[in-house]
Structure formats: C-alpha cells, structure tokens
Amino acid sequence: MALKIYNTLSREKELFTPLTPDHVGMYVCGPTVYSDVHLGNCRTFISFDIIYRYLVYLGYKVRYVRNITDAGHLEGDRDEGDDKFSKLARLQKVEPMEIVQKYTVGFRHVMQLLNNLPPSIEPTATGHIAEQIEITKQILANGYAYEVNGTIYFDVEKYNKEQPYGILTNRKMEDLLEGTRELGGQDEKRGRLDFALWIKAKPEHLMQWPSPWGMGFPGWHIECSAMSEKYLGKKFDIHGGGMDLAATHHTNEIAQSQACYHTSPANFWMHTNMLTVNGTRMSKSLGNGFLPEELFTGNHPLLEKAYAPMTVRFFMLQTHYRSTLDFSNEALQASEKGLKRLWDAYELLQKFTANNEAPTDAELDAKVNRLVNEFDEFMNDDFNTAKVLGNMFELVPVINSIKDGLIQADAISATTVSLLQQKFKAYLEDVFGLKNSAANNDVLNGVMDLLIEIRKESKTKKDFATSDKIRNQLAAIGINLKDEKGGEMSWGVS
Ligand code: AMP
Ligand code: ZN
User: Fold this and answer.
1) Of the candidates 272, 292, 327, which is a domain's last residue?
2) Are residues 199 and 223 in the same domain?
C-alpha cells in the first residue's frame, strides 16, 4: 500500500509521489525565538519529526529544512511597530541576538530531550537577508508589489485578479476582506490584505540592514519563501506547519512564490492541529502555555507531578496529528502507564525465541501477522500513529502471555516472532523515536524510591541538612524532586 497524505490545498488524502524519485524535500516553519517554546509548539515539531522519521523508514532520502525565525516577526503579526526580538532586547537592555541565542539554545535543548531528530538544515532569517531582498526585487519587477516610503507591500488585489489568493484555505477575497479592519488614515497600504515584504526601519530600530529601498528589515512571510527556494528549489514536495499558519503565513508564501517564480512552492501542504487546554488553543499570548521544563520538573501549580519527556512524546502520538489534543494531568498519567506497559512488553519480546516454523496455534499466528502488518498500512494512511499504537496495545497481552507461560515457544511461528520483534523495534525506536527513559527504568526507579524514603525519614527527624542535600544534589544532576500533598514526593528529569 502506498503512502497517502492529506493535502490542505485539495482537502483530500492524495497519493504521495515525490518530484524526484526516492528523494523528498520537506520544509517546516520553525519557532520564533523570542520566548521559550510551549508544549503546543512541541506538538507540531514532534508531529513533523514522526513524518520525517517515517519517510526515512520508507527508504526516502529526505532533506528536511526547518527555519529559525530570528528577525522580521512583528508584534501581533502586523506590519507596524517593533519586531518581537527588538522589543524584548530593548526591555532587557541586551542585544537582540542575545535574545535569539538564548531561545535558540533552549529550543534545541527541548527538541533533544523530546528526541526529535535535528533537521537536515536549520537556516535563520538573519542569515538570509540578501536572498530575501532578491526575491522582493523580483516580485517588484514582476509587478506584484509596490513601494511606499522605503516599505515594499505585496499587492494582494492585483494578484487575486489573476489567481485565487485564498486558495489554501478555500476562501474568497470578499470573505477574507470581511475579517480584516478598514485601512486607517495613516495606512500606506493600497489594499487591506496587502502585506509587507520589506519594512523601512526607524533609526532606533535595533535590527536593520541596507537594501535598495534604504535601511530596513524583512517581513515575516518572505523568509520562508527565500529559504525554502534556496535549499529545496522553487518547487518541492512537502510544506508544513501548525494549522494556525495556513490562513495568513502560508497563504502569503504561496502568493510570493507564484508572483516571483510563477509556481506554487509545495505539492503537499500539511498542517498539524492544535494542542488545547480545556478546549482552548495553547498559546503564549493567551497565557495558557505550559513549558516543557515545567512538565519535566512538575513545577507548575496545575501539575500533579513531573512527567518524563518520553511520556509527553507518547501522549502526543496517541492522537492523530490532524485532530485536536487536549492537555490534562489524567491524560498524561494514562500515557505514562501506557508507555510503561508497552515498553515492558517490548523488552520481554526481544528476549523471546521461537524455534518452530509451523505454528501450533494458527489462528493466533494469523492474528499477530495481521496486527503487525497493519502498522505500515495505518502509517501509509496519512501517518496514523494512534491506530498503530492501538494495534500495539492489542499485541501486549499476546506478548505478556509468553511470560505467564500461556503460550508456548512454538505457538506462533519463528517467522512471525521475528516480524513482531523487528516491527516493534522499528516503530517504537526509529519511527516513533521513543526511548526507554529514566522514568521507565526499574533500576533507577528503585534507587529513587530509596532516596525518597531517606528524604522523608530525615524530614520527619527534622534532619534538614540530609533532606536538602538529597534534593540539591539530585537537582545538580538534572533530577528534580517535587513535594506533593500529604508528604508524598515525585521526581522528573530535566
Ligand atoms: P511560533 O514560534 O509561534 O511561530 O510557532 C511555532 C510552531 O508551533 C508553528 O508551526 C505553530 O503553528 C505551532 N503552534 C503554535 N501553537 C500551537 C498549539 N497550541 N498546538 C500545536 N501547534 C502550535
Ligand atoms: Zn514559515
């Protein structure tokens, strides 16, 4: 069965055929590094990591480009005011690049903890100013942009006369216009939907570069057009990002590429659905964002305990990437238990050897084969990780019955056993990127139980020197203890 991918552009699952046989070019919009990534951002990056890993599993040579937005993203995503980096830099009296460095390092650290593979190329907006100026020049030359006092705007109305601007989200100009405010008296734009490709910088603006139109800085959308073209070409296979990017950022990217190169940049547009808290999208501006660090340490008033990075990753995989996922203590606790069950079964499975080619239980043998073969089928159906995990859980009792002596070594054939072993390994480790993290390690769990016991005793005896020493020294090696209600303690790794 061949891979099918849901394409936002056609609103259908389409057969995936790469532009160049055996090669896939994939571009994903990366983080804006002016603050810590929250768990919602992590969901999107985990989803694309799984997609990347699965394409590699299928044998494709993938060039995965994920940018770092370190310039041009303005407050409130509008074309006026300060950019997010300069604003924070001014407040904190530091260089904008210090803000960028701090949050880029933090982002990479979180990605590593969550076991997301690094992309093939991670280009930055500030490293590609020349390319952004070039594409802006070309759009101007092609007649789809205009200059007002050193700022270059994209002319959406003119573009829309020739091709539908709202094609990605299937919306007409009239509907789009309804959703935007009227042009104010001060507005330099000709049309309400016009957006900036290049923005003239005020003298006090901290990040600015020379251009044919004077000192300025790039608009947000142009960086992705410039960098995707540079590393993947004018047309590539997959462009992705969170769903919230489709209506404006990606719509503008398509318009820019069409206006510059007369082609839509990507064959497939993929959008991940949102992580929500009580049904509301997790976002920095709404203040309902949980930081990965808060989860790994349990340091958040709404968290009952700390959760290991692999629990968080597993929690994300249990829902298809195009469905919303609601964040809660209960769901995370269920994931923690589920992952442990799966991992225990996996370890048991790897030790199992069957020596008979003719199974003594043909029905069981056929069932195991079917469940395992469906892994690829489900992933080929638009990367349905949730369904693969469903089958894995159905296989857990079969695997566990080996331990309980309920099935004999020859009940299923040696070929089936080795298929089971091979696919569990390939999926859990390579495709899903799960690791047997510390929280699932029995030896470490035992040691931690002992240390927690000693800490509780020393607290009862008011020997605070000992209890503090345990907490502080564990913290120094990245293990965080959290005091819970009723004198209980939990721990997590950061
Ligand atoms: P930003 O740093 O805000 O540009 O966001 C980085 C990525 O995270 C983008 O692809 C967003 O669409 C995505 N994103 C933002 N909020 C959420 C959320 N609550 N759930 C899933 N993805 C999100
Ligand atoms: Zn982008």
Assistant:
1) 272
2) yes
Same domain? For 419 and 457 the reply is no
Looking at the CA of 241, which ligand is closest? 1
- pLDDT tens-digit map of 191-221: 999 999 999 998 888 899 999 999 999 998 9
CA–centroid distance, residue 30 to ligand 2 (Å)? 7
Distance 69 CA to ligand 2 centre (A): 8
pLDDT in tens, 378-412: 999 999 999 999 999 999 999 988 766 566 667 88
Residues 209, 453: Cα–Cα separation, whole Å = 60
On whether both 216 and 92 belong to a single domain, the answer is: yes
* Residue ranges making up the domain that contains 345: 309-438
Residue by residue, DSSP assigns 386-429 as: HHHHHHHHHHHHHHHHHHTTSS-TTTS-HHHHHHHHHHHHIIII
Nearest atom, ligand 1, residue 275 CA? 20
Q: Phi first, then psi: what are they for 31, rounded to 5°?
A: -80, 155
Q: Where are the beta strands (DSSP E) in 308-458?
A: 325-326
> Which of 67, 58, 55 is closest to 24 using CA atoms?
55
**Which of 8, 35, 38, 44 for a ligand 1 pocket mutation test, highest count of atoms within 8 Å of Cβ?**
44
Residue appearing with tokens 């892994």 = 375
pTM of structure? 0.90
Closest residue by Cα to atom 11, ligand 1, is: 242
Question: CA 209, CA 151: separation in Å to the nearest integer?
Answer: 13
Please tell me the distance between residue 494's alpha carbon and the centre of ligand 2 in angstroms: 29
Q: Give the CA angle between residues 131, 86, 229 to the nearest 5°.
A: 20
Count structural domains, the chain: 3
Q: Are residues 422 and 455 in the same domain?
A: no
Asked if 117 and 429 count as a contact pair (C-beta separation under 8 A), the reply is no
